[in-house]
Design goal:
Chain A is of the alpha+beta class. Chain A contains 19 helices and eleven strands. In chain C, helix 3 runs antiparallel to helix 4, helix 3 runs parallel beside helix 7 and helix 7 runs antiparallel to helix 10. The chains are: A alpha+beta, B mainly alpha, C mainly alpha. At the A-B interface, helix 1, helix 2, helix 3 and helix 11 of A face helix 2, helix 3 and helix 5 of B.
């Protein structure tokens, strides 16, 4: 039984009832919503962090709440915001920044950064991650579990297909050529193993963005009020994705689940997969075969969008609570802790200092795959993020799915997505 | 049916067999059909049992000799505060049913035995809820809860359901079958309306209360969308929402653990059903007869 | 006179608590949705204002709404007859003294008491391409692999099947109760007349089951518009809205996009659909049904 969670829960409930008469009276309470699901007892890890923090800062009490997927966490945080009592601190997709600003749900963080040490800490985050965390000269989010998309490959299956098990495809053409060799069919034409897999539920827009960057186009402007879904590079990207299944027949047809993709890879049902680096530790723990991790194959250039979640601080919280939340977020992103979090999950350590720690150096030395996502940051581009982000990404995601299921041609699907995004974003210009 | 003379009814007159009961080959065929369908029906559940009690490597490999394990249950139990979720759900279904019984009994008594102006209209208004249940009014009900400050509380989940048209209707039908003479006799002896309700109506309707209880508890144990919307924290989340939050991670699914968690959350109802199968079925039958 | 007044007072007093809550959480929200649907969604810098039928105009132009509506109608048309037909078949089977009857009755009824959210997870696994159970069986029998939830053609049918599986056993119970309530003398009389089993079913049992069918039908219609738990778990409306149902879309618009006024307008449409269903069933069908 998860007794600790149970007890902290009831203790928090009791404390909140007794708050006015609380004897010590000084402890600032903050609630913290987060969406990690790296498998295993991750809630324990976070609870442990919160307890450690409270030991260092007895004047602050953090109550962490695991809230499901990113999507579900955002729903929870914003509905709570609208009913008046949002969590003080939350980890949400960095791409929802504009939505959160528009709803006046979060505060800018510049006011909390006062000392030189604070400034040094803020400047040390990788620039690629800060692109989705700043707007209008203000910083709105603190990078926490950030990622890029990487390619995982199954070395055993590469060997069986007569490929060099140490060499990942470096270009789009090579990616297709490898995948053709890796796709296995029986006499009746039934496929027992696919060459490659790019998931298309939930984060389909993210995957398309990677392909689009490689084809030389970005999906939206930095202000988040204009999208470019109908640019030729984006069309080329979607066409390539569609062709993997429909022309080259090296990718499962139809929609591929985001959630089952790692399992497909672990089961050897696909020889390569594109997914977040946040899956690295899961794959490392569960793979019963040798696997490799590489940057995504290049077309005109290399590239991946950044991804993942930032800390955000609620506007509807008292200044003391906001300050406490900031201190906790700052504490959570200290180099040693960021390194530990990266090792435990596979997410990228968010700051340069994290990679300079001895722990991280040792880890990377023994497991070079851990550095791939970080190295890819050099080629990374800010993630698609707009006003009314949920709606815009749904319009794009739906149309990607329409193209992948063959009900629309890629160019038509992207034109439709662009028209819908235009309609949604016009009032924000 | 020419072979009516072979009916076993002759030998065992206490059981009346319908002449249309299938016999011989047809009986066997029907049995086979029924069992095949039944097997198909439990297959998903059997599959969940398989996955939950074997290591992840056997989830997709159905090898008979695979070792059994409780590891998946342990991991699921550790990964989320299921104990708290069980507690929340238990409190929730108890609260809902207790309130439903009190409100439903009073209202049903009024409809069954009191003649008051506006009764027909009021009854029609109650029946509206049979069609338009609170489940579809999520947006407005959320607004109400947030005004009342009940978001993220167990009463907040319960409140829209405690006045149940189904319960009122069911109890009204039952109360109407109770002879009015009993009522009158008690009145002559000076009993008040409330005493009559408690001493005569409620005891006589006991089987219906049990039936209603089973229906209500299994409905609210399983209810999902509204609790999902109105709860945020572990302290209020019922099992169904907890299960979804647990199973719906962004990081990839582990079927074995999810199946274990799924069985765990359904276990109380499932075990209850298997033990008291007959009562369950009869209760649902009673609750449905009008 | 006095006793009539006291009956009125007592009656209303007894009714009051239930009535207040019914009004607060069923009638008022229905009316409020209607009012709300004529104003704009309040945003931090743009307070709510009267916008006439703008939300309904937006709805007419919204392909996702039309798709959800069409999906919901197909979902209803697919699940309702199938669930009711299977329920009747199940009830007739377990009403007869056939071998394996107890097992069959238990198996049919079990899905009813399990949480939809839980069984949807199991079915999700069932449908998983390549190694889900369905795939393993299909490939064992030599059929080609299929991505059931991932293609537009099969996704809606796949989720509808889950609903049928979940509901049939529940409806079976009502048919079983009704079948057991039919007097055995009717069967004996029909047998004496030399009616075949089919004739007996068609001319005697089926008409006598009509009230049950109506009751089950109402429940099935409500469920077809009310249950979206499996959509949330299995597809989230995808691929490309192929499995988006009205209530799911309302949830999405209301709680993912926070466009509450548009969600209110969608709710009004859903309520209208339920009202039409009620009128058809109580008004038109009721007349065709034999009641005691």
């Amino acid at each position: 039984m998860d007794r600790r969670h149970f007890l902290t829960g009831s203790a928090a409930a009791a404390a909140s009832l007794a708050r006015p008469a609380l004897a010590q009276g000084t402890a600032t309470e903050i609630s913290f919503f987060y969406p990690v699901a790296v498998g295993g007892a991750i809630t324990r890890v976070i609870d442990g962090y919160a307890a450690d923090f409270s030991r260092e800062r007895p004047d602050i009490k953090v109550t962490p709440v695991y809230a499901g997927t990113y999507q579900e966490t955002l729903v929870k945080v914003l509905t709570a915001h609208k009913s008046g009592t949002p969590p003080t601190l939350s980890v949400l997709l960095s791409t929802d920044m504009f939505t959160l600003i528009d709803e006046e749900a979060i505060v800018p963080l510049n006011g909390f950064v006062r000392t030189d040490a604070d400034k040094a800490w803020l400047d040390d985050f990788y620039t690629g991650f800060m692109l989705n965390s700043q707007s209008g000269g203000q910083t709105w989010g603190i990078p926490f579990q950030r990622s890029t998309i990487v390619l995982y490959w199954n070395k055993d299956l590469f060997r069986q297909a007569g490929l060099d098990p140490e060499k990942a495809p470096a270009s789009w053409a090579e990616h297709v050529a490898f995948a053709e060799k890796l796709t296995r069919r029986d006499a009746a034409g039934n496929v027992s193993q696919w060459g490659t897999q790019i998931p298309s539920t939930g984060f389909g827009y993210w995957m398309l963005q990677a392909l689009a960057i490689e084809a030389g186009d970005v999906l939206a402007n930095q202000e988040g009020d204009r999208t470019f879904f109908d640019k030729p590079g984006v069309t080329e990207a979607l066409q390539y994705w569609v062709d993997l299944a429909q022309k080259h027949k090296v990718h499962a047809p139809g929609i591929v689940e985001w959630g089952t993709t790692p399992r497909d890879f672990l089961e050897g049902k696909t020889a390569m997969m594109w997914t977040t680096t946040g899956n690295l530790t899961n794959i490392r723990t569960n793979a019963r075969f040798g696997f490799g991790v590489a940057m995504l194959p290049a077309n005109k250039r290399r590239g991946s969008p950044t991804g993942g979640g930032n800390f955000h601080i609620a506007r509807k919280a008292s200044p003391t609570q906001q300050e406490a939340a900031f201190r906790f977020a700052r504490w959570m992103t200290q180099p040693e802790r960021a390194a530990r979090w990266s090792i435990d999950t596979g997410y990228v350590g968010v700051s340069r200092a994290a990679y300079a720690t001895q722990t991280m150096k040792d880890h990377v030395a023994g497991f070079p795959a851990a550095a791939v996502a970080r190295d890819q940051l050099e080629f990374a581009v800010a993630e698609l993020s707009t006003h009314e982000n949920q709606r815009v990404t749904k319009a794009l995601g739906d149309n990607i799915q329409a193209a992948l299921t063959g009900s629309k041609a890629p160019d038509r699907a992207l034109r439709d997505a662009q028209a819908e995004a235009e309609r949604i974003l016009r009032p924000y210009r | 049916m020419s072979d009516a003379s072979f009916t076993p009814a002759r030998r065992r007159p206490e059981i009346r067999f319908s002449p249309y009961e299938p016999r011989g080959f047809w009986r066997a065929l029907e049995g086979v059909g029924a069992v095949i369908l039944a097997t198909l029906w439990v297959l998903p559940l059997l599959f969940a049992f398989w996955a939950a009690f074997h290591g992840a490597e056997y989830t997709t490999r159905l090898e008979l000799g695979a070792p059994l394990t409780l590891e998946n249950f342990r991991r699921a139990w550790d990964a989320a505060p299921f104990a708290r979720y069980f507690l929340n759900t238990t409190v929730l279904v108890t609260l809902i049913f207790a309130c439903q019984v009190v409100l439903g009994t009073l209202a049903a008594y009024a409809f069954a035995r009191f003649d008051f102006p506006g009764r027909g209209t009021a009854f029609a208004l109650v029946l509206v809820q049979l069609m338009i249940m609170p489940d579809v009014l999520i947006v407005e009900n959320y607004r109400t809860m947030s005004r009342l400050g009940l978001v993220d509380t167990i009463p907040g989940i319960a409140l829209p359901y405690i006045a149940s048209a189904f319960g009122i209707f069911l109890l009204r039908q039952t109360f109407k079958t109770i002879p009015k003479e009993l009522d009158d006799a008690a009145r002559v002896e000076g009993a008040s309306a409330l005493q009559i309700l408690l001493k005569i109506y409620v005891p006589l309707a006991k089987p219906i209360y049990i039936a209603y209880g089973l229906v209500s508890v299994s409905y609210h144990w399983n209810n999902f969308l509204w609790p999902l919307i109105v709860t945020n924290s572990v302290e209020a989340r019922p099992l169904t929402v907890g299960l979804q939050v647990f199973a719906g991670g962004d990081q990839g699914v582990d079927w074995a653990v999810i199946c274990a968690a799924t069985l765990m959350t359904s276990a109380p109802l499932l075990v209850g059903f298997l033990l008291f199968q007959r009562q369950f079925v009869q209760s649902f039958m009673r609750a449905g007869i009008r | 006179m006095n006793s009539r007044l006291s009956a009125a007072v007592h009656g209303w007093l007894l009714l009051m608590p239930a009535m207040l809550l019914l009004v607060a959480f069923t009638h008022w929200p229905a009316v409020a949705s209607f009012i709300e649907s004529f104003s704009s969604t309040p945003r931090p810098r743009r307070p709510s204002r009267f916008v006439g039928v703008a939300n309904y105009e937006q709805m007419l132009a919204d392909p996702v709404f039309w798709q959800s509506l069409a999906n919901n109608l197909w979902f209803a048309l697919g699940t309702i007859p199938l669930a009711i037909g299977l329920a009747l078949l199940m009830a007739i089977w377990v009403n007869d003294r056939i071998p394996g009857r107890t097992f069959a009755r238990m198996a049919y009824f079990t899905p009813t008491i399990l949480p939809m959210i839980a069984v949807a997870n199991i079915w999700l696994f069932f449908y998983t391409p390549q190694y889900g159970l369905l795939e393993q069986v299909a490939s064992g029998l030599g059929f080609a692999s299929h991505n059931w939830l991932g293609s537009r053609e099969t996704a809606l049918a796949a989720v509808a099947l889950v609903a049928v599986w979940k509901e049939s056993g529940f409806f079976m119970i009502f048919y079983l109760a009704a079948l057991q309530g039919i007097s055995p003398t009717l069967a004996e009389a029909a047998a004496l007349e030399g009616a075949s089993r089919w004739t007996f079913f068609r001319r005697v049992q089926f008409p006598l089951l009509m009230p049950t069918t109506l009751f089950v039908l109402i429940n099935a219609v409500i469920n077809a518009f009310r249950t979206v738990d499996h959509i949330i778990v299995m597809t989230r409306g995808g691929p490309d809205n192929a499995t988006s149902l009205l209530l799911f879309y309302i949830y999405q618009v209301g709680f993912n996009f926070w466009d509450t006024s548009y969600a209110a307008a969608l709710t009004v449409v859903l309520l209208a659909m339920l009202a039409i269903a009620a009128l058809v069933q109580y008004g038109w069908l009721e007349r065709k049904v034999h009641y005691r």
